[in-house]
Amino acid sequence: MVNFHLQTLKLGLILVWLCGFILISISFYATTQILPSSSSMKEHINNLTSSTRPTVTIFTAVRPFSGSIGRKQTLAIRSWLGLSQDIRVVLFSKDPSVFSFAGSFGYGSRVSVEPTIDFTFLGTPFFHSMVARAQASNSDISVLMDSETILLPDFFSTLSYVHKLDHDWLFIASSRNVSDFPFHLDVDGKHWLGDNNKMVKMEKLQEFLSNGKWEHCDDKKTIIAWNNGELPLHNGVLPPFLYGKGFHTLWMINEALSSNFRFVFDASWTISSFFINNIYNNATIEARNWENVGNSHLGAFYGSLFFHEDHYNYSNLIKLFKCDKHYHFGSTIDDIVYPLGVFRSSKHTKLSTCFDKLKPKGNTGCSTKNQLMSLEPISLPFSLELLLSTRADQNKTIVLAVAGYSYKDMLMSWVCRLHLLNVSNFVVCALDDEIYDFSILQGLPVFRDKLAPNNISYDDCHFGTNCFQRVTKVKSRVVLEILKLGYNLLMSDVDVYWFKNPLPLLTTFGPAVFLAQSDEYKITGPINLPRRLNSGFYYAHSDNSTIAALEKVVKHASLSNLSEQPSFYDTLCGVNGSNRLGDDMCHEPETNLTIRFLDRNLFPNGAYQDLWDLNNVSSTCMKKGCFVLHNNWISGRQKKLERQVSSGLWEYDISMRMCLQTWQRSKSISYF
Ligand SMILES: *[C@@H]1O[C@H](CO)[C@@H](O)[C@H](O)[C@H]1NC(C)=O
Ligand SMILES: *[C@@H]1O[C@H](CO)[C@@H](O)[C@H](O)[C@H]1NC(C)=O
Ligand SMILES: *[C@@H]1O[C@H](CO)[C@@H](O)[C@H](O)[C@H]1NC(C)=O
Ligand SMILES: *[C@@H]1O[C@H](CO)[C@@H](O)[C@H](O)[C@H]1NC(C)=O
Ligand SMILES: *[C@@H]1O[C@H](CO)[C@@H](O)[C@H](O)[C@H]1NC(C)=O
Ligand SMILES: *[C@@H]1O[C@H](CO)[C@@H](O)[C@H](O)[C@H]1NC(C)=O
Ligand SMILES: *[C@@H]1O[C@H](CO)[C@@H](O)[C@H](O)[C@H]1NC(C)=O
Ligand SMILES: *[C@@H]1O[C@H](CO)[C@@H](O)[C@H](O)[C@H]1NC(C)=O
Ligand SMILES: *[C@@H]1O[C@H](CO)[C@@H](O)[C@H](O)[C@H]1NC(C)=O
Ligand SMILES: *[C@@H]1O[C@H](CO)[C@@H](O)[C@H](O)[C@H]1NC(C)=O
Ligand SMILES: *[C@@H]1O[C@H](CO)[C@@H](O)[C@H](O)[C@H]1NC(C)=O
Ligand SMILES: *[C@@H]1O[C@H](CO)[C@@H](O)[C@H](O)[C@H]1NC(C)=O
User: Mind telling me which InterPro entries this protein's record contains (predicted)?
Assistant: First the structure.
């Protein structure tokens, strides 16, 4: 059981996300600035230019389609598609039921699934990754909304209106929470029908909805929409919020207001959106996988971390409203309707009546403070045993990465690469608290090695140093522990780039065979010479021979003042290679373990054939049929990182804190 201490974590994270954190604090106190300050922005508010109908893509994270959740999502999505032929829907999910739902609309339909955004290992999508994907949309307008929220036609009329604004904009719209909605959608998804299948008028629907309560406290129920224009949404870097956890929408609005790039407003009064709130039945509780224990603790934690302990609400935003069939903007705080101008008094009276209806009666906001206060302390239940049992593949095999904080970007690039290769049976062993916290925030299956030395997060913890020796000795102990729990294991340093999944090959050698990368740099000759075993990439089968041999290695390493790498060779192949067998094997007689050195054309080390010096490493390695390429035989963390980034064998966007996605890749780099 790894116990997680909020306070320690907070401190660490403040450092990790320092930039974002400062922005939050600043924007908090900058929100009194509520109007677009640049005068040009104000002028542009009612300067309508474009007259074409906008193309719209609605992005939504969906839960698996089953039970009442499935039905609610289906109804909501049908209501969106019925609004206009110009609306497309992108579903964020990796679940097979979502693919079949999208498939049911037929080939070339307006519904598609996007499984390549970042998810935690428990399947929760990351909000920052969803936003990035939505920003890459080629439609005029991107919308992010909850998958159970139903829309009425005034949604599309509002978008058609704001599409004509001559300034980039961003709006939110709150939804209503109704306990019952006695109408059903017709086959086309265009009309709502009442009892005797008679069409129900829009006015009647709206009247019915006006009894529903605004939902202000559930951040994910707020619709966000923006035009895909020139200006960024905001100046900040979105923290890796889990979708539906914490106040990500508030965060974005705060940032957008303080960045002052776009015209930010609240369109709740011109958009009829609602969700039906009734009790979930038992069958669907399983499907609500975002709500499982580990995740909800994490989510609560995100909320507290990335938001100031104060309250904020949307009542300060400029509001879009409709009066006498015309749209207007107004600020209820300043009692101003835009554009500023003289109205004929009759018109003015009417407008004031409309405007007065916007003024909040009673409490319209939601105190984030109250919600944050009620959070329980976090205790993450990710023990090694639990992680292994949920992550191992059907061969009971685990891929293990061991990393310290100074290798965090390398770790992420490695993880992103494994995601691309659909390899999901990996776990991460954190060598220090910083990398543990970082990995938790990035949604990785991570455990903390309790025996690891505490201070290893140094830039100079590289090959040959004291630090390096201590770190590498941790690895074999963890490996031994995992083998003893009955799991086969592929140990891969995070500086090993994977071209394709080597497990199908490595698992064919069977028990009592230990497979390791050779560090031999000469092109020809034996590859099993003394000290040529690289302990940064090896496969160990969980059996008596291997466990007994690894026990000897760990013991040897504990007595040696060198790193553990020589202990592997000296123990398994004998000092001076006395246990060598042919040119690429050893046999350890006491444990009857066979050691095979992997073919260097398939598993090249960093020196072999100077592969890293080629101007197209990737294509050469692909032609050779490489499974992996080790970024070793280079000194210094920085140089190593540069070499990997510059050769294009890099999969992580450091500044955005998310995997490089297919939609972000430059077309010049080839991936396969
Ligand atoms: C309104 O838009 C038109 C066309 O883009 C532009 O020529 C005009 O200058 C704009 N007016 C203002 C006040 O910005
Ligand atoms: C909707 O309202 C009901 C009753 O007021 C409340 O119990 C429920 O939590 C609300 N739903 C959401 C998603 O906030
Ligand atoms: C729902 O679950 C509860 C507890 O898990 C159980 O007691 C109850 O019988 C279930 N109800 C139905 C209708 O399955
Ligand atoms: C919402 O903001 C307004 C204006 O800042 C404030 O008066 C009100 O108390 C806030 N509501 C809540 C619930 O925090
Ligand atoms: C990973 O899975 C996706 C979806 O199932 C598939 O399109 C893709 O080709 C797979 N990639 C690899 C490398 O197997
Ligand atoms: C931890 O680091 C400090 C400062 O670099 C060093 O003096 C100390 O010996 C280290 N502790 C261990 C257990 O190695
Ligand atoms: C599981 O092991 C078998 C051989 O024992 C191998 O053919 C198969 O590819 C392995 N599966 C994976 C996912 O590695
Ligand atoms: C492995 O060792 C255990 C106990 O040490 C023993 O019970 C078991 O039979 C051994 N298995 C094999 C395949 O030798
Ligand atoms: C390592 O140990 C050997 C003896 O086992 C000793 O000769 C050598 O000086 C030690 N090296 C260091 C750096 O302590
Ligand atoms: C290994 O070789 C060195 C020199 O070649 C020799 O001095 C040493 O005794 C040898 N050790 C063993 C255990 O064979
Ligand atoms: C050692 O392993 C080989 C197969 O790897 C097996 O044929 C042999 O019987 C084993 N010898 C002993 C003593 O267990
Ligand atoms: C590397 O080679 C591949 C395939 O030949 C090619 O598509 C790609 O553009 C090359 N990349 C660079 C950086 O030259």
Answer: Nucl-diP-sugar_transferase, RAY1-like
Q: Which of 63, 177, 278, 363 to mutate to test the pocket of ligand 2 (most atoms within 8 A of CB)?
A: 177
Q: CB of 670 closer than 6 A to ligand 12?
A: yes
Tokens of 531: 């000290």
Residue 575 DSSP one-character state: G
* Residue 421 beta carbon below 6 angstroms from any ligand 5 atom: yes
One DSSP character per residue, 308-364 reads: -SS---GGGSEEEEEETTEEEEEETTTTEEESP----HHHHHHHHHHHHHHS--S--
Contact in structure between 530 and 576 (CB atoms under 8 Å): yes
Give pLDDT tens digits for 256-269: 888 889 999 999 99
pLDDT at 511: 97
Q: Which tokens belong to 416?
A: 């992103």
Domain 56-315+344-369 falls under CATH 3.90.550 = yes
Nearest atom within ligand 7 for CA of residue 510:
5
Cβ atoms within 10 Å of 246's Cβ, excluding its own: 27
User: Can you read off the two tokens belonging to residue 31?
Assistant: 């929100």
Nearest alpha-carbon partner for 428 in 411, 413, 441: 411
Question: In Å, how far from its chain's centre is CA 397?
Answer: 25
Q: What length does the chain have?
A: 672
Structural tokens at position 225: 């929409």
The SS3 assignment for 235 reads coil
**CATH, domain range 387-662:** 3.90.550.10
Q: Which ligand is nearest to the CA of 283?
A: 3
**Which part of the chain has CATH 3.90.550.10?**
387-662
Residues of the chain with pLDDT under 70: 1-51, 246, 279-313, 339-347, 360-382, 450-472, 662-672
DSSP conformation letters of 560-586: -SS-HHHHHHHHHT-GGGTTEETTTEE
Helix pair 544-559, 466-484: axis angle to 10 deg:
160
pLDDT of residue 66: 85
The two beta strands, 446-448 and 426-430, are parallel
For residue 368, which phi and psi values (nearest 5 degrees)? Answer: -70, -25
Per residue in 13-46, pLDDT (tens digit) is 333 332 233 333 323 333 323 334 444 555 555 5
User: Using the 8-state DSSP alphabet, how is residue 446 labeled?
Assistant: E
Beta bridge partners of 594: 513, 587
Cα 57 to the center of its chain, rounded Å: 20
The answer to whether the CB of 475 falls within 8 A of the CB of 456 is: no
Point out the ligand 11 atom lying closest to the alpha carbon of residue 513.
5
Strands (E), 459-604: 488-492, 496-498, 513-518, 533-540, 580-581, 585-588, 593-597
Q: Under 8 Å CB-to-CB from 392, ≥6 apart: which residues? A: 398, 425, 487
